[in-house]
Specification:
By secondary structure, this protein is an all-alpha fold. 85% of the residues lie in helices and 0% in strands.
Length: 439
C-alpha cells in the first residue's frame, strides 16, 4: 500500500472515529430513558415515552437535511477557500432552521394530533403521550439549529466537536432523567423537560464552539444575502431533495415495524432486538460516510478529482473491513448478544431464527451508507432522492408484496433488498458521473 493511500486511510479514520462514538451515544440515551421510566409501576408511562420518542424521531429527522445539506455545501466552500461564503452559509442555514422550528411550534396542535393519530396509542396511554409531545415540541429550535451546527462542523472537518457536543448533551440528559424521575418524582413529563433542557444546553455549547472556530475562518458574513429570499433558494433546492429522500427512508423503516407488529407481539419484540443491532451497524458505518462528506466535498471544491477518487477508495476499504468484522461478530456471537438484550425465551428463539439476515446485512448495506457520504459531499442530492424513490417503490414494496407468504422472513428479505437497490442505483449513478465528469 502506498504512503499516499495510507495517508488517506489515516485521514478518514481520524475524522470517522469521533462520529462513530458520538453516534453510539444516542441509542444509549434511549436505553437509559427506557430503564428510568421502565421501573415505574405503571406500564402506561413506558408506552407513552415509546410513542412520544417515535413521534419526535420522525418529525425531527425529517429535517435531517439541515445537517446533511450544510455539510456538503460547507465542504465545497472550504475546498474553494471561500471563507465569506462559509460564514454566510452558516448564518443562512441557522435562519432557515429557526424558521422551520417556529412553524413547527406554531402548528404544534395539528402536527401532534396527526402523529398520535397515525400511531394509534391506546386510550389510557394517549394523555401521557400527548403531554410528553407538548413539552418536547418546544425543543425544536435547539434541535434544528444544532443539526446545522453539526453539519457545519463536519463540513469544516472538525468531527471531534461532534463527540464533545453529543456526549456531553446526552450525559446531561441522562443525569436530568434520573433526577426528574427518581428524585423529583416526575413521570413522563420529567423525561420531556430533561430532554428539552439538554437540547438547549447542546445548542448553547455548540454556538460557543462555533464562535471559537470562526476565528480561523476568513472573510465576513454577507449580511445583504440574509435579507434576500432569492439567496436562500439554492439552499432550499438542495435540501428539498434530501427531505424527500429522508422521508422515504423513514417510511420504509416505519412500514417494516408496522408489518412486523402484524405477526404478533413476540415477533415484533424480536425484530426490535435485531433492529437495535442494525442501528448500531448504521451508526458506526455512517462514521465513514460523514468523513467522506467533508473530504470529498473539499476535494471537489478544490477541483482535485484524483484525490477525490483516492478518498472514496480508501473509505471503501475501511467500510469493507468494518462491515466484515460486524458480520463475523454476529455470526460467532449473535446468539449471546440476543440473550443479553432480552431474557424472554420465546423472543430469543424468534430473534435467533432471523439472525442470519443480520449476519449478511453489514456487507450488503455498507455500499449505500458509503455512497450517501460521497453524494452529499459532491452535492449530488437529486441522485440520492431518485435512488431512494426507485429503491422504495420499485424494489422494497414489490419484494415485500411478492414474499408475503414467507411472513417475517419476507419482511427481512424486503429490507435487505432495499439496501441492495440503494447500492445498485447509487453505483450506477457514480459510474455515470465519473464517465461524464459531471461532478
Amino acid at each position: 500500500m502506498s504512503t499516499l493511500q495510507f495517508g488517506h486511510i489515516n485521514l478518514i479514520w481520524r475524522l470517522s472515529w469521533p462520529v462513530m462514538l458520538s453516534n453510539i451515544s444516542q441509542p444509549l440515551l434511549s436505553l437509559v430513558d427506557i430503564a428510568v421510566i421502565g421501573h415505574l409501576p405503571d406500564s402506561r408511562f413506558l408506552a407513552a415515552v415509546a410513542i412520544g420518542t417515535t413521534v419526535f424521531s420522525f418529525i425531527y429527522w425529517s429535517f435531517g437535511f439541515l445537517r446533511m445539506g450544510t455539510t456538503g455545501m460547507t465542504a465545497q466552500l472550504v475546498g474553494a477557500n471561500n471563507g465569506s461564503g462559509n460564514r454566510t452559509l452558516l448564518a443562512q442555514s441557522l435562519i432557515l432552521a429557526l424558521g422551520i422550528a417556529l412553524l413547527l411550534m406554531m402548528f404544534q396542535t395539528p402536527i401532534i394530533e396527526l402523529a398520535l393519530g397515525l400511531l394509534g396509542p391506546q386510550a389510557e396511554v394517549l394523555p401521557q403521550a400527548q403531554g410528553y409531545a407538548e413539552i418536547r415540541i418546544y425543543g425544536a429550535p435547539a434541535v434544528l439549529c444544532s443539526y446545522v451546527l453539526l453539519g457545519w462542523f463536519v463540513g469544516n472537518q472538525n468531527t471531534k466537536i461532534l463527540l464533545v457536543l453529543l456526549v456531553s448533551t446526552n450525559l446531561l440528559n441522562i443525569i436530568l432523567d434520573i433526577i426528574a424521575v427518581n428524585v423529583l418524582g416526575m413521570k413522563v413529563e420529567g423525561l420531556a423537560y430533561a430532554t428539552v433542557i439538554s437540547e438547549y444546553f447542546g445548542l448553547i455549547l455548540g454556538l460557543w464552539c462555533c464562535k471559537n472556530m470562526l476565528r480561523s475562518v476568513s472573510g465576513k458574513i454577507a449580511y445583504s444575502q440574509l435579507k434576500k429570499m432569492a439567496s436562500y433558494l439554492p439552499i432550499i433546492k438542495v435540501n428539498r431533495y434530501l427531505f424527500v429522500r429522508t422521508v422515504l427512508l423513514l417510511l420504509a423503516m416505519g412500514f417494516f415495524t408496522a408489518q412486523g407488529a402484524k405477526f404478533g407481539a413476540d415477533t415484533l419484540a424480536a425484530n426490535a432486538v435485531l433492529m437495535s443491532f442494525v442501528m448500531l451497524i448504521a451508526h458506526v458505518l455512517d462514521g465513514f460516510a460523514h468523513a467522506l462528506e467533508a473530504l470529498t466535498g473539499k476535494a471537489i471544491g478544490a477541483r482535485d478529482f484524483t484525490k477525490f477518487y483516492q478518498l472514496v477508495a480508501a473509505a471503501a476499504l475501511l467500510s469493507i473491513l468494518v462491515a466484515s468484522a460486524f458480520s463475523t461478530l454476529f455470526y460467532l456471537g449473535g446468539h449471546w448478544f440476543i440473550e443479553q438484550l432480552t431474557s424472554i425465551v420465546v423472543v430469543q428463539l424468534i430473534a435467533k431464527e432471523y439472525l442470519p439476515w443480520l449476519v449478511v446485512l453489514p456487507l450488503i448495506a455498507m455500499t449505500s451508507f458509503l455512497l450517501d457520504g460521497v453524494f452529499i459531499g459532491a452535492m449530488q442530492v437529486s441522485l440520492m432522492q431518485n435512488s431512494m424513490l426507485a429503491s422504495v417503490f420499485l424494489v422494497f414494496f414489490p419484494v415485500w408484496y411478492l414474499t408475503q407468504s414467507l411472513l417475517n422472513h419476507g419482511l427481512w428479505i424486503a429490507l435487505l433488498s432495499l439496501y441492495v437497490a440503494r447500492a445498485v442505483t447509487g453505483c450506477v449513478g457514480f459510474y455515470w458521473l465519473r464517465r461524464d465528469s459531471a461532478w
